[in-house]
Design a protein that fits this description.
The complex is a heterotrimer of chains A (246), B (211) and C (218). Chain A is 78% helix and 0% strand. Chain A has seven helices and no strands. In chain A, helix 2 packs across helix 5, helix 2 runs parallel beside helix 7 and helix 3 runs antiparallel to helix 7. The longest helix of chain A has 44 residues. Chain B is α/β, with parallel strands linked by helices and 211 residues long. Chain B has one domain: Rossmann fold, CATH 3.40.50.300. In chain B, helix 2 packs parallel to helix 4. Chain B is globular and about 60 Å long. The N and C termini of chain B lie far apart (52 Å). By secondary structure, chain C is mostly helical. Chain C has one domain. Helix content of chain C is 86%, strand content 0%. Chain C has ten helices and no strands. In chain C, helix 3 packs antiparallel against helix 6, helix 7 crosses helix 8 and helix 9 packs antiparallel against helix 10. Chains in contact: A-B, A-C, B-C. At the A-C interface, helix 4 and helix 5 of A face helix 7, helix 8, helix 9 and helix 10 of C.
């Protein structure tokens, strides 16, 4: 139908569906391979840390999930901006599809962070600035998803959630600094900090990279699959509407 | 002053396309009466003309900066008096004096009364008096004569006629015979059906092969 | 804009309910705290700044769903949107009216309620100052949340869910100013940061609020 090809043409639902269909199985398989290799390697074939023992191995879940928790929000921000500026429906639906994946990543990061911290703090939860920030991010995700769920008209929902995502991003960054300010020096950061030089030696580092790649691929595969579902739902709705009016 | 021109307008309510291909041209001093059954999209069309919602397709000129929109929900506050309510909208629109508007709709005796103590018809007259204060030349009125008695309908018709006489434009959605010389536009023929849904801002998700 | 603001204040005062309600709510929250944690000043005094800030924040939240909902119901919001006033101005005026009817009275009442919680004397002034500087941000953020949910039938609970996480920076800096004031510490940095948050909200949020309103109206 259209002869001109650009990146934006993939924002057409039909084209998007056709392009992602063959991609999805490969992405999923690759994600699974990376995760299995990275996690098995990390859990069973790396030495224990001289200070933290085997507890340190939780970084293979904690670091990638924390990374993706933030990246998922960032992706939603970019997708929201594309929707607000260029009105590409797929973009709005991709943002919607990413939120539940992002909130799950945040939850995994929170739980693994608490598990990691418990032997050091002697308690399951301490108001560590880093963990607290993730808790706040978790609340932002909840609000974003609740707003999507509450609005009936999909385009109105896309508009309002996009505005919320924009404003929320500013406040999320602000909260990060506020939380640092609020709890500065209460915990000596170094013991839990993810500073590569200090805490993560090479033996840990390479399997960690494999795990991160696995989480990135997993995220992309999940978001694509969910976006495809959202597109199908919208199409079903549109066709039903046409049927009813006939 | 140019007229109100709609070209190939398509409107939707809650994502459902209602009307498509609506075109008309109302010259200064003329009125247009919209007819059609309930739910066909009269209110949605008026809101689109007022610039309160974007059209699905097509164009409206001018875009709403010259129009005053009057619906059954008239924005009058129950606890404020008639004069206070009108005074607020007058300042907002930069109109000085509310006396002519009070006089035009016979509200002089009620000026100190709180809006919540007005009868339905008096309340309606208050809402219509606001139209005069906006100073806008395009009046968009949604069922303006609901709960008005015969004398008030006549008074309203006079106000519209005076407005048209000043070179104003009025678009009214009503089924009541007002005795105003006006063109009628039956919206029935613009109704979006299954056969026409693809044209004029059809849903992008309904196009293409089903996967 | 001034006219919208003064009309909203007049409406709030005349309707009675909304105006006094948040103050009464604030009082009740503060009175309930000692029943929960015990009456000893040694327990109450250290947590007083935080409790008072939290109480004021929740009291602000109480009247937020009325900011646009009433105007939406009676059609005034449509008319405001078509009036020759920028919607950003409407948003700012609405937030201003909300602050004058909740944030300001709460700030002025807080020092008196602080007595109930045994807040040391120098803290009273700084508590009021922190609230005066911080509550405008609460009203602006809340107005933004109200604009997002104005088209929804049961938006009240959702509004709280959206707005409360956005309150985090204001609460942190505001309560810190009050705490440092009570302990006689230097409070320049948090006060400056609190002011910066409020200034940023004044400058930016009316645009987001107006954008949300435009979408909600259609």
């Amino acid at each position: 139908m259209q002869t001109e090809m650009s990146l934006w043409s993939y924002a057409n639902p039909t084209r998007f569906m056709a392009t992602t269909r063959p991609l999805l199985p490969w992405l999923s398989a690759l994600a699974a391979a990376c995760l299995v290799v990275g996690l098995v390697w990390g859990f069973f074939f790396t030495p224990d840390d001289y200070r933290q023992g085997s507890t340190v191995k939780i970084i293979y879940l904690h670091v990638p999930s924390a990374l993706m928790a933030i990246n998922a929000w960032f992706m939603m921000l970019v997708a929201s901006l594309i929707w607000l500026i260029r009105r590409h429906h797929v973009s709005a639906l991709a943002a919607k599809a990413a939120a539940p994946v992002g909130v799950t990543m945040t939850l995994v990061a929170l739980v693994t962070g608490a598990v990691w911290g418990s032997p050091m703090w002697g308690t399951w939860w301490a108001w560590d600035p880093r963990l607290t920030s993730f808790l706040i991010l978790f609340l932002f995700y909840l609000g974003y998803m609740a707003l999507w769920a509450a609005i009936e008209d999909p385009d109105t929902a896309a508009d309002l959630t996009s505005v919320l995502c924009l404003v929320g991003s500013v406040f999320a960054v602000l909260s990060r600094y506020a939380v640092n300010f609020w709890n500065q020096g209460l915990h000596q950061g170094a013991s839990l900090s993810l500073d590569k030089e200090e805490n993560v030696a090479d033996v840990f580092y390479i399997p960690l990279l494999v795990c991160i790649a696995g989480f990135v691929l997993l995220f992309v595969a999940l978001v694509l699959a969910r976006t495809r579902t959202e597109i199908r739902a919208r199409r079903l709705h549109a066709l039903q509407l046409r049927e009813r009016m006939a | 002053m140019s007229g109100l021109v709609a070209s190939d307008l398509a409107v939707a309510r809650g994502g459902v396309p209602l009307l498509a291909g609506v075109s008309f041209d109302v010259a200064p001093g003329r009125a247009l009466i919209l007819t059609g059954r309930n739910g066909i999209g009269k209110t949605t069309l008026l809101r689109t003309l007022a610039g309160l919602q974007p059209p699905l397709a097509g164009r409206v000129a001018p875009g709403g900066e010259r129009s005053a929109y009057g619906a059954h929900a008239d924005g009058m506050k129950a606890t404020l008096s008639v004069a206070e309510n009108l005074g607020f909208w007058a300042t907002l629109h930069g109109a000085g004096d509310i006396a002519p508007a009070l006089a035009a709709f016979d509200l002089d005796d009620l000026r100190g009364r709180a809006a919540q103590h007005l009868s339905a018809g008096q309340r309606r007259r208050l809402g219509l008096a606001r139209m005069l204060l906006t100073g806008r030349d395009i009046w968009l009125l949604d069922e303006p004569t609901v709960s008005l008695d015969r004398a008030s309908v006549a008074r309203f018709a006079d106000a519209v006629r005076a407005h048209l006489g000043r070179g104003g434009i009025a678009v009214l959605a009503t089924h009541v015979e007002l005795g105003i010389e006006a063109e009628a536009l039956d919206l029935e023929r613009y109704r979006v059906t299954g056969a026409t849904a693809g044209q004029g801002g059809g849903d992008i998700f309904a196009e293409g092969a089903v996967e | 804009m001034i006219r919208i603001l003064s009309r909203d204040v007049a409406l709030a005062v005349r309707a009675g309910g909304g105006f006094g309600l948040s103050l009464a709510f604030f009082l009740i929250v503060v009175v309930l705290v000692p029943f929960g944690v015990g009456p000893e000043t040694a327990v109450l005094a250290p947590i007083a700044p935080g409790i008072l800030w939290l109480g004021a924040l929740l009291a602000c939240l109480l009247s937020l769903d009325r900011v646009f909902a009433l105007d939406r119901e009676d059609g005034a919001l449509d008319l405001l949107a078509t009036a020759p006033v920028p919607l950003e101005g409407v948003a700012l005026a609405k937030a201003g009216a909300h602050w004058l009817t909740t944030g300001l009275p709460l700030s002025l009442a807080a020092p008196f309620l602080a007595v109930l919680l045994g807040l040391p004397a120098p803290g009273h002034l700084w508590l009021a100052v922190s609230l005066l500087v911080g509550t405008p941000a609460l009203s602006l953020i809340g107005t933004f949340g109200a604009a997002l949910t104005v088209g929804l039938k049961r938006g009240g609970l959702l509004l709280s869910l959206l707005v409360l996480p956005l309150y985090v920076p204001t609460l942190i800096f505001g309560a810190d100013v009050a705490r440092r004031g009570a302990e006689g510490l230097a409070l320049g940095p948090p006060l400056a940061l609190l002011g910066a948050v409020t200034a940023g909200c004044v400058a930016l949020l009316p645009f987001a609020t107006a954008a949300a309103l435009r979408v909600s109206l259609r």
